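Box 4.2: Ligand-aware structure prediction
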Amino acid sequence: MEFIRIGIYMAMESEAKAFIESLEFTSGIDTSPYGFKSYSAEDKNYKIQLLVGEQDSKYNVQSVGTVPAAIATDMLIKNFNPNVVINAGTAGGFKSRGAQIGEVYAADSTQFHNRRIQIPGYAEYGRYYLTHKNDYYQKIISNLNLKAGLLTTGDSLDYSDLDKELVEPNKAVIKDMEAAAIAWVCYHHQTPAIFLKSVTDIVDGPHANVNEFLQNLQEASTNLSKTLIRLIQSHAL
Ligand code: SAH
């Protein structure tokens, strides 16, 4: 096992709380204007730098979505020089592709589903499909029993008919609001990325996903934290 530098981004403190409580983190000061929360932890095998979206100073809600995610990831890579970036969080799951509440996925690929640009060449740019079957991913998949598949990203929690047009043909298994932006940053820095997502709600199910999200957030975050700890402590990376 080699020493590894792990950069982690989590959009919501409510998703990160269980993980922060289960490792000995030291909280640091983020001097950027975006109000991210910064934590670090280390032992002889790893050094972790964690950034959390935290409160948006204008609207007093947690900084979900692609813009803070991209900026935080760029900061993590420039300031910490990680061997691998992990984006850990929650996601909606598609029951038509076998997803269930509380399950943790390691996505093997990412795309955007709400960037529709009908100019030649720009449709592919809008989708920005990337695969993430890097060495870390292969190790995780063989060491931890996680589901895999395409993770699709858009800046909305709901799922419109137009979104569906880009998701259905590509058979995404889970849906979030950050991953494809983080993937874009990691791609340009040539930093391997891992996407761990715990299912809080079923996108193609009978319940409104806002209620389902809030109801299952705790269970999903606990499972996510357990997976992260297993991954870090069992040397699965
Ligand atoms: N209503 C929530 C807001 C959560 S936004 C609150 O009050 O706290 C949803 C967050 O969880 C995003 O960071 C996103 O990445 C993830 N997420 C969970 N389920 C999702 C879904 N069905 N679609 C898109 N993102 C989802």
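In the box above, the bound molecule is S-adenosyl-L-homocysteine. The first strand starts at residue 4 and ends at 10.
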